[in-house]
Design a protein that fits this description.
The complex is a heterotrimer of chains A (535), B (490) and C (175).
Chain A lengths: L12 H26 L3 H9 L5 H8 L6 E4 L17 E8 L2 E8 L10 H17 L3 E7 L7 H4 L6 H13 L4 E10 L1 H8 L2 E5 L4 E3 L3 H8 L5 H5 L1 H8 L4 E3 L2 H14 L23 H4 L10 H5 L9 E3 L7 E8 L2 E8 L5 H16 L4 E7 L6 H5 L2 H13 L5 E10 L2 H4 L9 E4 L4 E3 L3 H18 L6 H19 L1 H6 L12 H12 L15
Parallel strand pairs in A: 3-4, 4-5, 5-6, 5-7, 6-8, 11-12, 12-13, 13-14, 13-15
Antiparallel strand pairs in A: 1-2, 2-3, 9-10, 10-11
Helix pairs in contact in A: 4-6, 6-7, 14-16, 18-19
Chain B lengths: L3 E4 L3 H13 L3 E6 L7 H5 L2 E4 L5 H5 L2 H11 L3 E3 L9 H9 L3 E2 L4 H8 L1 H10 L7 E3 L7 H8 L3 E5 L9 E3 L5 H16 L4 E5 L5 E9 L5 E13 L2 E7 L6 H17 L4 E9 L5 E7 L6 H8 L3 H9 L16 E8 L1 E2 L5 E2 L2 E2 L2 E3 L6 E5 L6 E2 L6 E9 L2 H14 L1 E3 L5 H9 L1 H4 L7 H4 L11 H13 L2 H8 L5 H4 L5
Parallel strand pairs in B: 1-2, 1-4, 2-3, 4-5
Antiparallel strand pairs in B: 6-9, 7-8, 7-9, 10-11, 10-13, 11-12, 12-15, 13-14, 15-22, 16-17, 18-21, 19-23, 20-22
Helix pairs in contact in B: 5-6, 13-14
Chain C lengths: L2 E5 L2 E9 L4 E5 L2 E8 L5 E6 L2 E9 L3 E6 L2 E7 L5 H4 L6 E3 L4 E6 L6 E2 L4 E7 L2 E6 L4 E6 L6 E2 L4 E5 L7 H8 L1
Antiparallel strand pairs in C: 1-2, 1-8, 2-3, 3-4, 4-5, 5-6, 6-7, 7-8, 9-16, 10-12, 10-15, 11-14, 12-13, 14-16
The chains are: A alpha/beta (535), B alpha+beta (490), C mainly beta (175).
Amino acid sequence: MSRIVSTVKPESDEFRRRYRHNRWMAQDLKRMQEAARSARPKRDIERLAKQGKMLPRERLEKLLDPGTPFLELSSLAGNMAYEGEAPSASCITGIGIVSGQEVMIHADDATIKGGAWYPLTVKKIVRALDIALENRLPVVHLCDSAGGFLQMQSDVFPDKYMAGRIFRNQSLLSKMGVKQLALVFGHCTAGGAYIPALSDYNVITRGTGAVFLGGPPLVKAATGEVVTAEALGGADLHTRTSGTCDYAAEDEDDAIRIGREIVAQWERPKKWAIDREEAEPPFYDPDELYGIIPDDIKKAYDAREVIARMVDGSRFHEFQPNYGTTLVCGYARIWGFRVGILANNGVLFNDSALKGAHFIELCNQNNTPLLFLQNITGYMVGRDYEAAGITKDGAKMIMAMTCSHVPKFTVMCHASFGAGNYGMCGRAFDGRFLFAWPNHQIGVMGGEQAANTLAEVKIRQLERNGEAVDQAVIDAVKQDTLKAYTSQLSAYHSTSELWDDGLLDPVDTRNALGIAISASLNAPLGAPGYGVLRL
Amino acid sequence: MFSKVLVANRGEIAARIMRTAKEMGIATVAVYHHLDRGAPHVRMADEAVELDGDVPTKAYLDQEQIIGICARLGAEAIHPGYGFLSENAEFAERVTKAGIVFVGPDAGAMHLMGDKVRSRNFAAEHGVPVAPSVLQGDDPENFLARAKAIGFPLLIKASAGGGGKGMKIVREAADLVEAVRTASSEAERYFGDGLVYAEKLVERGRHIEVQVIGDGTGRVLHLCERECSIQRRYQKIVEEAPAPNLSDDLCHRIRAAAVQLASAAKYRNAGTIEFILGADREFYFLEMNTRLQVEHPVTEMILGLDLVAEQFRVAAGEGLSFRQEDIKPSGHAIEVRICAEEPEKDFRPAIGRVGLLRLPAGEQVRFDGGIAEGQAVTPAFDSMLAKLIVHSGTRAEAIARMKAALADLALLGVPTNIDYLARVMAHPAFAAARIDTGFLSEHAGTLNPDDAVAELERAACAAAALAQSDFRRLAFDVPEPHAAMGGWRN
Amino acid sequence: MTTQLKLDGRTIRLDIAGRKPALRLVFDSVEHEVIELPAEDGAFELKLDGRVYRGWRYAGEREIYVRLDGRTFVMSLAEAGGASETKGRHANAVRSEMPGTVIGIHCARGDEVRAGDTLITIESMKLQIGVAAPRDGVIEDIHVAANATFERDALLVSFAALAELADADLMEKRA
C-alpha cells in the first residue's frame, strides 16, 4: 500500500493559525474534562474519605491492569444540562483491560448527589450497556448509587429508554453469555439494587456496601420498622443469608482484588478473525492534525491529510480515486486492523453517493469494518441534481450503510449537516461507536443557512400579508436563529446530550478507534443482505 | 567388616555415614519417621524402615523399635551419628546385649563422660586442667557462698545439661540468687534434674576441641584440634581446623591433655574433648563428646582421612588405618553450618520448604546435606539443614573459597543463615583470626546486612514479580492493540 | 492496579508502565526496562536497563526467594489473597453448617490454634466431620459439650481477637 503524499505546509500562516486555534480547542476540552472528572465540593470528597470510600476514579485505576489504556466514553455527558449539577452525567463509562480481559466499565459517582441517576445518567448507562450488547463486551459495574434522582423521576423512570432499559440490557447480556460483575461499594438502593442482582457475579464491601429495594428511611416510612443499612442489606446478610451477593470483601481494595480474580476466570471471547497485521504508527505526526483542521466551520480540508495522520504508516489504498471525488474511499489499517474508510471531501453528488454505496458493499463482501469520517454539509441540492436522482442515490448509500453486517465507526471531524449525516452513518444508524472532535458542529443545516432560510421565510410571510419588510425585524430573526443554532450546534451541546460517545482530542482518534475496533470484534458478524435499492 | 549396618539417625549425618558405608561395601538400613519419608537418607539406604510414633524426635529415640528393626533385618552394627541416641549409655548397652555392635565407645565411657560433674572430676583426677567450680549437690546449703568464693564472673550450668540450656552468666553477687533459681528451673524443665554448678567464667575464651580416636586396644590417638568459637546461642556455626594462632607449645599441651584423658578412660572409637582457652593462654576441660561431631569434616579435610570409615574399622575390631605419626595436617579447612533460621531476628528458627537447592561446584568444596528439593523444613527437627566445608592451602585461601562457595549456594524456600555466614566470612576480625566465643555478639552491628544496592534490589524485585503467575499474566496477557498503547487516557 | 512487594518489612510498589517493545516496570516512580532472557529451570536471567542479572528464584507458599549476587532476598506479594482468602478471615464465630452431634472436642478455652486445626468433630447424617479453625487465633469459648446435639448454624466455638503465634512458641517446639 502506498503512503499518502502530504501537501500540508506546516510553515504556512494558515497552518500555524489553525494549529493555534485547534490546540487551544483541545486544551479547552482537556480543561472541561478535568473539571467534570475532579472538580467536586470539598465536603463531598471528605465525606467519602470518612466513610473509607475511594473516589470513583481511584477505584477505576485500581481495577484496570497497570499500564493499559482506558477509553472513556462521553466524559462530558450532561455537562450542559441541569445547570452543571451532574458533570459527566454522574457516572463513568468506558472500555478497559481487567485481568487481561477487554471489558466495559460502568462506575457510579457518589460524589454527586450520592450517585443518584439523572436522566442523562440513565441514558449514559443504557448506552454503555448497548455498546456491551452490540459488541458482546463483558461489563464490570462499580456500584455506589442512591438510585433514580427523585426530583426528575418522570424523565428517569417510565419510558422505554429509561432506567428499566438498564435492567433489560443486563438481562439480555446475561442471556447472550456476556458476563457481568458488580462490585458494590456503597448503597445500591431501589433500581440500583438490581444492578448487582442482575449481574452474574457480585462482590459486596463489608461496612459500606449495601443492597436493598428500600433503604432504612423508606422502610421506616412504609412499615415503621427501624433497621440499620448493614442489617437491612449488608455484606453478611447478602452473602450468608439471602444469597443476593456472592462474595463479601473486607474493604474496597479487597473487593477490587476479588473482582479482578473473578474476571480472570472468564473465558476469553473468540473474536472474529479480522485481517490484522503488526501495527505501525502513522508516518505523519498526528499532531499536525491541529494545523489541518480548519478554524472555521465553513472551510474545507483535504480528507487524505486527516487519514494520513490516523492510519498505519499513513498508507492508504484509494478506491476509484478519479470518480465521485467528493467522497474519498479506500482501505487502510488502524492499529493493524484493516478498515474501509469513507471520508467527505466536499458535498455529496450523485457519483460520490453511488461510489460510497459501492464501496460499502465491497467492505461487506471483504469483511472489513467501515470508518466514516464526517465533514459533510449535505447532498447536493438543485433541479439538475434532483433530476439526476440525488435523492434516490443518497437513499442507496443510506440503505447500503444501514444494512452493512460489518461494524461501523464514525468520527465527526468537522461539519455534519443535513442528510449527509445519515448517509455517513450518523447516530441513528447503529454504528458501534461514534466519536466527535470538539470543533465539530451538527444540525439539520448550518447556523447561517438556518438564519438566512428563516429570514427568507419571514420575508415571504410579511409579503404574503402585505406588510412592509422591516430590515430590523429580519435582522433580529437572523440574530436569534444564529445564536440559538450556535449553542445547539456546538460539539459540547451534542456530547452533553449523548449524541455521540464522547469528544476526542483529534490526536487521540487513532487510539480510540483501535480500542473500538478491537471491542467490535467480540460480536460475530451478522448475515449480509440489503433491502430494496432504488436503482 | 560388617556386611550391613543400621544408621540410627536422619538428615545430613545419616546420609554422610551411608556414603562411607557404601564405599566400604556395607549395606545400609535407614530408619525414619513419616515426616522424613522423602528424605535423602531414606532414599540412599538399601533398606528403609518407618518408625512408629507421633512425635518425630521421639521416634528416632525409640530404642526398642530400632534394636528390633536391626535384629529383624540382620544388621550387624548400629551407627548412631550425633544427637539422638549417640550418647545414650543405656542404648549402647542394650545394643551390645542384643548382640549388635554399637559404633562408638563402650557404655562405661559414655556413662563416665555423660555427666558433667563426673567427667570433670575424672579429668581433674588425671591431671587435665578444669576451671575452678563448686557443685550444688555437694553442699546445697552453702552453695551460694561457695560459688561467691570462686569470684565473678561466674557461669551457672546444669549438671545434666548441654547445648546452652540452663546456662546463666553472673557478673555480680547481687544477681547470683536469681540466676541459680532460673538456671535450676530450666534444668529441671529440660533435663528433669534441677541440679546446677557454678564455674569460673572464662571471658573472651576460645572454644578449642581435640578429635581423638581409640583403636579398641586401649591406644588413643589425637587427630589435631578444631577451633569452634564462632557460636550463637552457645551453638557452633563456624568451625575450622587447625585452630589459628596457637603456639606449638600450647597446641601440644592441649592435644596431650586430650589424649591423656581419653587414654585414662580407655576410650574406644571417635570422641572429642572440648576445652575453653582463655586470653591468658590457660585452658580448661569443658566436656567430652563420646561420638562423631558435627564438625568432623574439617578434621577429615586437613588429614585426608574418613573418620566414619575409621569408626567402622575400630568397631569391627580391625583397628585404625594409620598411626599417630601419620597424622600430618595439611592446609586449612573451614565448615559452616547451614541452618533454617533468621539471624536478623535473633537467630529464630524458621520453617518452610527446600524449594530450590543448587550446590557450589569446585575442588575441595564439600556439601554435607541431608535435604532434597521439595522437602519440608518443620519445627519437628533441628534447624541445621546442611554443612558446607572447604579446604585450601592457607586460612586466607580457605576463607576466599568459602565465600565463593557460599555465593554459589542457593537454598531457597526457607529463611537460612547463608548470607549471615557470608558476612562472617567477609568480616575483617574473622580474617585476622581475632575470634572468641563472644565474636558474634561483639560484632553484631557490623554483621548486620548492609542495604542492598538499589539496582540489585530492583532486579530481585523484578525477578520475584516475574516468578508469579499472576504477575506474568498481568504483564504478558494484555491483548493487542491495548498492550502497545500503554497507559493511554482520553 | 499496583503490585506491592514486601521486602525486609518495607513495601515496594511495582507498576507496569508499558509492555511494548519491552516490559517497563516502575519502581518508586522511575521507569525501568526489563527483558527476560531464557534460563534453565529455577534460574532467571534478566536484563534491567541494559544490565544482565542472573540468579535463582523460588516461589514458596507465601514468599518468593531470590538469590542474586550472593544475597538472598525474601519477598512476599502484599497483593496476595483474593476471593478464597477472604473466607473466615474475619470470623470470630465458628458455626455448624449442618445439624449434628458433638463426638469430639480437640481444643480448650484459651488454646492457641492455627487455621486449619480441627477444633471439634461432629457427626451429622452418618458422616463424621472435622470443624476446622477458620484462622489463627485463641479460643475464647466452646459453646457445645461432648455428645450434645445442635441445630444448623449453631455457634460451636468463638475466637478471641486475633493473636500472632509467638516466636517463642516456635522455639519451644524446636527445643
